[in-house]
Amino acid sequence: MILACFAKAQKLAVESGDDPTKWDEVQNYLEQAGATEDKADEIRRYVDRVSFYEPQFQKNSKADADAKYKKSKPIKPYPVGSHWITLDHRHILIKG
To answer: Cα–Cα distances in Å, from 19 out to 8, 11, 95?
Structure first.
């Protein structure tokens, strides 16, 4: 319900010419998107709390903060004619 309401609020923001990635604009459409007043207030409090703590989460996270900007290594294709089998609940690549 919450995600569907949020997505609909983003759609309504776009249709009204607002930026769907800006919370300050999207939150104005929650009730119009079908959220009750209480549910809209709950969503606003939740997003405000998450936004408030986001810098602390990022600071304390052990994840690589720049990982989303790095290019991933290309996936090597399997050799021609190879296929997967399952043996004793393990996946095994049989090279062709």
So the answer is: 13, 10, 50
Let me know if residue 10 belongs to a domain. yes
Lowest mean pLDDT: which of 9-18, 71-80, 81-90? 71-80
Q: Give, as one character, the DSSP assignment of residue 78.
A: P
With vertex at residue 4, the alpha carbon angle to CA 47 and CA 52, rounded to the nearest 5 degrees, is 5
Q: ∠71-74-79 over CA atoms, to 5°?
A: 170
Number of domains in the chain: 1
In the DSSP assignment, the letter for residue 63 is: S
Residue 64 DSSP class: -
Question: Would residue 87 count as lying in a domain?
Answer: no
pTM for this predicted structure: 0.58
